[in-house]
Specification:
InterPro entries: EPHD, HECT_dom, Hect_E3_ubiquitin_ligase, PHD-type_Zinc_Finger, PHD_PHF7/G2E3-like, PHF7/G2E3_ePHD, Znf_FYVE_PHD, Znf_PHD. This is G2E3 ligase. The protein has a 4-stranded mixed sheet. The chain has a two-stranded antiparallel ribbon with strand order 1-2. Strands 3-4 form a two-stranded antiparallel ribbon. The protein has 27 helices and 20 strands. The protein has 728 residues and is α+β, with helices and mostly antiparallel strands.
Length: 728
């Protein structure tokens, strides 16, 4: 390394060791980050992560004049930032001497004498407890190698364990292992020198990490298997297709071995059947099935009909669903004779589940309708976007900082067409997949905002009070990013609380917060204690205990009757949820005014709440099917059937790809943007060997095949390999 002079290659301690042959340069990443005399003056894809080569040469020359106070050798590029302290040292020497390096803001360094320390209360018990990461004992001592949790009184960790955990979990998943607190925990760990990389967790980045979950049980377990090719033989769409138990899924049978006429008929293994028999439910179910089969066919059948939640069956058979879809352009598709009415018409169901499913369906349909209206409104706003492009150079390892830099650059305009170019230290992506890059960028950006310190809460989030973020105008930037993302094809946020949304569209003075809006556990507990006080004396005692908090909040009032607690609770809620964040809220609202989004939200509040307060609809076979317009004719009925059947296989897990993979293959996006796709996705059936995803036109070209299995194999092979190559 040109800065520390060591040849060690230890990424956990010194960062990645990088060699640039063209510059005749080798450097440890952390040595470069922590050097006192160098700054990132270039773009992320220039030099070494924005550090220009000329600046690195100058820093090496500067450090060559400084002697390390630890090893006494030249080249000490890092200095202690404490006033009047003149100690200099190499990064590895500083680690060895227990210096602290803060991987945030200005990347400050503190020598062993001036390093920050954690405060230990005199009342805290001395002794030892278990480190919840390595499960070995850790002593409760104020030493460099031991860190305590800022959010849990009895949580202690080895520094080395925490650093390995942070490198593995990344910024999105690194949190207290005891209480799961993220913001307070990360802030303290960064202050104490733990490096938290701004990337996804290592287990999320590992290729095929969840491959085992896609394996389906395929073995015939009946006493007498009739298949000559063995119990493990499985041939789909034939009598030798293996059907799994509808309850446990861990037993199977060939259709022929259990006299099943098709996979639409459900089957139970002996173990599950015996459980039902003991509970007395099996005989009742048999009677229901018998009655249903007699009503539909006129002849008794001892095979039980499928329940509403059959794994491979939606509300109707694939072909009947295909005929009802409004997206088919042709009118001459006809149903196959062996597929009859939808399963829901043939199954006897108790009234209560029907009513609950009906209510859920109504709500689901209502949200879909609202999101369609949002889509049309956002398209009106997109008229402002010009053909002139603005390119954002995004560092894949530090998306938030590079996004912030891009949005703040002088040439950035929300009305320009946005192109995203991802880069990192190893390679540079080309802009010919700018659509896919842009979709991915907005998706990761929204995820970062959702988990950032700007918001607080578990599910429906409210704005938090972060003075540093307020000082850096980050609330405005967050609002601006959300507005730009929605108009330029990003995903719906889906994480706002209804209270926050009402504050944005109606104004904070018109909103009445609830206890669920309080994210701070201590404050929530205080409010609960006041709210559920059952006597005047217990209420006054509680107020005395939290007198300091109530005074600071401006909520301290004389209490003469038990009913006064309701007004007091209301005051605390209004202060903590609304008044406390007046400045962040106003700044955030100003950001949302970008491209006229906030004005539209205020005009159509009910419509926009569907994308701000509710999570996006999970992709289903039906959703993806309706998304595409099929250009078809009467001679390719089978191809359309194959397409629907394949989507259902993917949804039920009988595939190596996901519905998100299919969408990504065709459009470059793994989600449906709030504004929809432009142009709208289409499907063509052509005489080609393998499927083709045309992302410029959002068109999926599918091969015509005679057999469904042949169609499925071609889809699996093409989509899996294409996406794998892109990821590599």
């Amino acid at each position: 390394c040109v800065l520390c002079g060591r040849t060690d290659d230890c990424p956990e301690k010194y960062g990645e060791k990088r060699t640039y042959v063209e510059y005749n340069l080798t450097v440890h990443y952390y040595c470069l980050l922590m050097s006192s005399g160098i700054w990132q003056r270039g773009e992320e894809d220039e030099g070494v992560d924005g550090f220009l080569i000329t600046d690195i040469r100058k820093e090496v020359k500067r450090a060559a004049k400084l002697k390390c106070n630890i090893c006494k050798k030249k080249g000490a590029s890092i200095g202690c930032v404490a006033p009047k302290c003149k100690r200099s040292y190499h990064f590895p020497c500083g680690i060895q001497r227990e210096c602290i390096f803060q991987f945030m803001e200005d990347f400050r360094s503190y020598c062993w004498e001036h390093r920050p320390v954690q405060e230990f209360m005199d009342k805290e018990p001395r002794g030892a407890s278990q480190c919840t990461i390595c499960l070995d004992l850790v002593e409760h001592l104020p030493v460099y190698t031991v860190l305590k949790s800022p959010c849990c009184k009895n949580a202690w960790f080895h520094r080395e364990c925490l650093q390995y955990q942070a490198l593995s979990a990344g910024i999105f998943f690194f949190r207290c292992t005891v209480c799961n607190n993220k913001d307070k925990f990360q802030k303290e760990m960064l202050r104490m020198g733990i490096h938290i990389p701004e990337r996804d967790a290592s287990w999320e980045l590992e290729e095929n990490a969840y491959q085992d979950l896609l394996h389906c049980y395929q073995h015939c377990d009946v006493k007498r298997c009739l298949c000559k090719k063995g119990r493990d033989y499985n041939e789909p769409d034939s009598k030798w297709e293996i059907q799994r138990c509808q309850y446990c899924g861990s037993r199977g049978t060939h259709l022929a071995c259990s006299s099943l006429k098709s996979w639409e008929q459900n089957w139970e293994c002996m173990e599950c059947r015996s459980i039902f028999a003991k509970s007395g439910k099996y005989s009742k179910r048999k009677k229901h099935a018998l009655a249903a089969s007699e009503n539909s066919n006129g002849t008794p059948c001892l095979l039980e009909e499928p329940p509403p939640k059959s794994p491979r069956q939606s509300s109707g058979s694939p072909r009947s669903f295909l005929l009802q879809s409004p997206k088919i352009m042709c009118q001459n598709l006809s149903p196959c004779s062996h597929l009859e009415q939808p399963a829901s018409n043939r199954v006897t169901v108790s009234p209560s589940p029907v009513m609950s499913n009906w209510n859920w369906s109504l709500r689901h349909k209502y949200l879909r309708q609202q999101r369609k209206e949002v889509c049309n409104i956002l398209k009106e706003l997109k008229v402002q976007v010009q053909t002139k492009t603005t390119r954002l150079n995004i560092n894949a390892e530090n998306i938030w900082s590079s996004a912030l830099k891009g949005f703040r650059q002088r040439i950035f305009s929300p009305t320009n067409t946005i192109e995203v170019n991802f880069s990192n230290c190893k390679n540079r992506s080309k802009t010919n997949t700018s659509s896919a890059s842009k979709h991915h960028f907005f998706q990761v950006l929204m995820l970062h905002l959702q988990n950032s310190s700007l918001f607080e809460g578990s599910f429906g989030k409210n704005l938090s009070l972060d003075f540093q973020a307020l000082k850096e105008n980050l609330y405005f930037e967050a609002g601006k990013m959300i507005a730009v993302s929605l108009v330029h094809g990003g995903p719906p946020p889906g994480f706002f609380s209804k209270t926050l949304f009402k504050c944005l569209v109606y104004g904070p003075e018109s909103v009445k917060p609830a206890l669920e809006d309080v994210a701070d556990v201590d404050v929530a507990q205080t409010i609960k204690t006041i709210k559920y006080a059952n006597s005047l004396s217990s209420l006054q005692s509680t107020l005395q205990d939290c007198c300091e908090f109530l005074t600071a909040a401006g909520c301290l009032r004389p209490v003469t009757a038990l009913c006064d607690k309701n007004m007091l609770v209301n005051d605390i809620l209004i202060y903590h949820v609304i008044k406390r964040i007046t400045l962040p809220l106003e700044s955030f609202r100003q950001g949302l005014k970008t491209l006229g989004l906030l004005e539209k939200m205020q005009t159509h509040p009910d419509v926009f709440s569907s994308i701000f307060c509710y999570k996006p609809e999970r992709l289903s076979a039906e959703t993806v099917y309706n998304l595409f317009t099929i250009h078809s004719s009467s001679d390719i009925n089978e191809g359309a059937d194959f397409w629907m059947g394949y989507l259902q296989d993917v949804e039920s897990g009988d595939s190596v790809v996901t519905l998100e993979d299919i969408l990504l293959f065709v459009t470059g996006s793994s989600y449906i943007p709030a504004i929809g796709f432009d142009p709208e996705p289409t499907i063509k059936f052509l005489h080609i060997r393998y499927p083709i995803g045309n992302r410029l036109l959002n068109c999926l070209e599918l091969p015509r095949t005679k057999m469904y299995q042949q169609f499925k194999n071609k889809m699996e092979l093409t989509i899996r390999n294409t996406l794998r190559v892109e990821r590599e």
